[in-house]
Amino acid sequence: MKFMKLGSKPDTFYSTEAVRSVSSEVSSDLIIQVQGSRYLLHKFPLLSKCLRLQRLCSESPDTSPHQIVQLPDFPGGIEAFELCAKFCYGITITLSAYNIVAARCAAEYLQMTEDVEKGNLICKLEVFFNSCILHGWKDSIVTLQSTKAFPLWSEDLGITSRCIEAIASKVLIHPQKDDISCNGAVSLRHKSTCKGWWAEDMAELGIDLYWRSMIAIKSGGKIPSNLIGEALKIYAARWLPNISREVNCHKNEASDSDSDPTNEVFSKHRLILESIVSLLPAEKGSVSCSFLLKLLKASNILSASSCSKVELARRVGLQLEEATVNDLLIPSFSETSGTLYDVDMVLTILQQFMAQGQSPVTSPPRSKLGFERRRSRSAENIDLELQESRRSSSASHSSKLKVAKLVDGFLQEIARDVNSPLSKFITLAESIPDFSRIDHDDLYRAIDIYLKTHPDLNKSERKRLCRTLDCKKLSVEACMHAAQNELLPLRVVVQVLFFEQTRAAMAGGKVTELPSNIKALLASHEIDPSRPTAAFSTNTSTVGEDQWSVSGLKPSKSKLSTLRMKLAEDDNLDEHDLQSDGLGRSSSLKPFVLFLQDPKECLVTSWRSARLKTTDEC
């Protein structure tokens, strides 16, 4: 930090009661009042350097021994005035980045220009400011930060703009310096941890000055977007550290008073948040998805503008595959929904993700002739382009697989909310393309939690809830759990048991080949009984009754008894549950029960029936 000393005389200012005076053999003849303080001084040293005091004294001549001059709204207060007064007396004063703005504004107020006296205070301050302060990084930051006490004066005198230009030029010249550990001899792993050396210092600036400085830095076009994003993350951590649900409750309680300090704090935080959003780099990946979602949570708590929320949702959608379930738990403060989490915002993010135009892996177009006798170099280049395209498509397909797992995990969280509406749960579950879910175990777990949390769902609502569930994509363990789940609709339980028994029969070698009519039945449901199923994952954070266990499961006879009991209870059907022939659903499901009773005998009987039918037709 640089400093400058002016004057050579010792400090002779002293205080007597409420009056500040200067020791001198000459009697004082001037009283100056500054912000309630009185200074008993002399006209000659002050008027010889201060044009404003000259005019004030000439405009109101006073024959009394002490002429009184009022200096209202003096910039910098009594400290800045005393600096200027001591300079007039030749007393030593010390100037630095901490007080140069106050001294410059005070000198401008007193009009201490070269027209009054050569080598006046304004000239000396300008030389020190331009040659020393603006050349130092810390000096520029401290000086810029001190301008917030004199915003209008600093703008008019060009102090603010010159500090911002100096800061931006230094950042643009050296945007990234290696940390102590990041020297040329260390590995790339250590170099990747280096960040912009300027971010921490700039985080001390107020949001207005910070925003202007960042705009100047970004306009230079030389700073990598990831450094900009890291700087914004540091600033957010500095100024938005304690935003929480509880603080929002205090804000609601204090909403009746516009002048309440709590409202002022929230208005300040809202301005900071919206300014950070406006500074986000346009490049994808310049900030992490986790950081974007933290900003989105804060925007809900602070009731930020809809433009800021939409922009954050759009950016999150571009890199949603990086998020975690906890990141998506955005608190909801809607007075109408009463839900714990903002499902609508997650749906918006998901729509943005799906709108990117990504597509799964596709096979390259084949030749119409099916073969090529000779391959030219251009054809090989086309193949290379196709392979590159496939790799790109594979990456986008992989991101959709990750997002599908993410959404299913989020569904498990909102399923625990008793106020979570069924329609939003179903909409969110159906928003994932079918190919993105390799298995439906996580989806089934979410449905199971929802059924337990909402026991009052009627039959129709339970059917709607399970509509997205594909029993063919359930693992063996999930099937065993679903087969005994009393909360599932009967149709789902029957499908689960049928698929499980069919796969077991084929895998156990009881039936080597299925008859055509059974194959047709399975084909109508798009079932491949020979397809192996993935092991059911138990790596889940669910606790208590949501945990699944395969120990103590009932044998198949017990499953059959449970199914028969459900069929008996389901005899009391609604009109729309009746088939066109007037038979209830239980009669239409009797073949499935027979199949579960003895799958081998059922399949053999079906094969004989199909054979007799073929013979009769012949």
TrEMBL record:
InterPro entries (UniProt xref): NPH3/RPT2-like (IPR043454), NPH3_dom (IPR027356), SKP1/BTB/POZ_sf (IPR011333)
UniProt keyword annotation of tRNA processing present: no
Keyword Iron-sulfur: no
One matching Pfam family: NPH3
Biological or metabolic pathway of the protein: Protein modification; protein ubiquitination
Matches recorded under PANTHER family: OS12G0117600 PROTEIN (PTHR32370)
Protein name as annotated: NPH3 domain-containing protein
Protein's organism: Erythroxylum novogranatense
